[in-house]
């Protein structure tokens, strides 16, 4: 069906043709989605902020504590809402750009395509994807990771068809990743060296590396898509 060397080589060929535009798209998408690109991380951050405490003298003031934690809680909630209604939609648009970039030269505005189609449907399904993954992770870490890979094709499916129902999106992603999860996991591991290399340059170097794994994952999606009826 596909192998790691094949999809990575395909991604490299695409990068030779259109690297700098891919870099700009990745930069814009990374900036707009923020460091935390999923509701899972936002919720985890919200939870940790609300159960942590500080023993320094200034925190002995109950009023200061209340104001401080209220501010942190509001900021976390706003971050969750931003991820649900904006960040996740940009993730879908970003994936749509890399799908089209396989054989086209799409415009930069493609990363905002999720707002132009069935926006609320995209918001709903991406929220359900994150929520289900989060619940699995709360129950068991390993099954949660497996489910994350099972749902990993959903943003790509929505990029091509924002009118899919939730049942269709989850079912198609499950079909596409059946028997593929271990390979997808190994594929992600294969980029660790590149990510470390990018982090060496004060962390900013990772922005120059990110187009490579994103293009590769899009190639995986295109390969898997051919084996299911969409």
UniProtKB/TrEMBL annotation:
Query: Which residue spans traverse the membrane?
Result: 66-91, 134-154, 191-210
Q: What keywords appear on the UniProt entry?
A: Membrane, Transmembrane, Transmembrane helix
Q: Does the keyword Transmembrane apply?
A: yes
Q: Which domain of life is it from?
A: Bacteria
Residues in the signal sequence: none
Please state what the protein is called: DUF975 family protein
């Amino acid at each position: 069906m596909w192998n790691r060397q094949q999809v990575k080589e395909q991604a490299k060929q695409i990068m030779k043709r259109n690297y700098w535009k891919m870099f700009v798209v990745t930069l814009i998408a990374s900036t707009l989605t923020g460091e935390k690109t999923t509701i899972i991380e936002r919720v985890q951050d919200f939870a940790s902020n609300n159960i942590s405490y500080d023993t320094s003298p200034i925190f002995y003031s109950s009023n200061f504590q209340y104001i401080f934690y209220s501010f942190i809680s509001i900021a976390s909630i706003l971050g969750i809402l931003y991820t649900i209604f904006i960040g996740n939609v940009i993730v879908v648009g970003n994936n749509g750009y890399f799908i089209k970039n396989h054989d086209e030269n799409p415009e930069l505005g493609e990363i905002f395509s999720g707002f132009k189609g069935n926006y609320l449907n995209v918001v709903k399904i991406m929220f359900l994807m994150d929520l289900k993954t989060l619940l699995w992770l709360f129950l068991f870490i390993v099954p949660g990771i497996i489910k994350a890979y099972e749902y990993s094709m959903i943003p790509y499916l929505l990029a091509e068809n924002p009118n899919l129902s939730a049942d269709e999106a989850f079912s198609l992603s499950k079909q596409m990743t059946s028997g593929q999860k271990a390979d997808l996991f190994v594929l992600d591991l294969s980029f660790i060296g590149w990510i470390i290399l990018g982090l060496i340059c004060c962390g900013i170097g990772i922005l120059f590396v990110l187009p490579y794994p994103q293009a590769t994952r899009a190639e995986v999606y295109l390969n898997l898509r051919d084996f299911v009826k969409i």
